Amino acid sequence: MIQVFICRYPCLMVSMTHVVTSACVLCKYQDCVHVCPVEAFREAEEYLVIDPDECIDCAACIPECPAEAIYADTDLPEEEMSWLDKNEEEAPGLPIAEGDSPVLAD
Ligand code: SF4
Ligand code: SF4
């Protein structure tokens, strides 16, 4: 007999991502980049963003960020909600962050 299981919690099937927020602007460090296992960070001129298509939600980058700029999208503060779209929309057009070039060089 074939059994079909239907998830009663469809929200659990929606993909997550992690998000870089405003505290990243002009950060001199890229500690986050070194712990990301999938090269999900992308480098804009004055901040990084995370490519949601690459991020596997391991959360390894969160404790590495001295500015506390990274959140799971489910924990994103209300005032940082615009960064969810910013990460998603800007990431495809930006280069992979290498972690060896400060976002704001001295
Ligand atoms: S560690 Fe990474 S995410 Fe955190 S502020 Fe610096 S560049 Fe941005
Ligand atoms: S949550 Fe994991 S995969 Fe996503 S950006 Fe951070 S370190 Fe990379």
Brief characterization of the structure:
By secondary structure, the chain is largely without helices or strands. The chain is 13% helix and 11% strand.
Describe this structure in words.
With 106 residues, the chain is largely without helices or strands. Helices cover 13% and strands 11% of the residues. The strands form two sheets. The protein has a two-stranded antiparallel ribbon with strand order 1-4. The chain has two helices and four strands; from the N terminus they run E-H-E-E-E-H. The protein has a single domain (18-93), classed as Alpha-Beta Plaits (2-Layer Sandwich). It is globular, with a radius of gyration of 16 Å. Strand 2 (41-43) and strand 3 form a beta hairpin. It has helices at residues 31-35, 82-90, and strands spanning 18-20, 41-43, 48-50, 70-72. Residues 9-13 have low confidence and may be disordered.
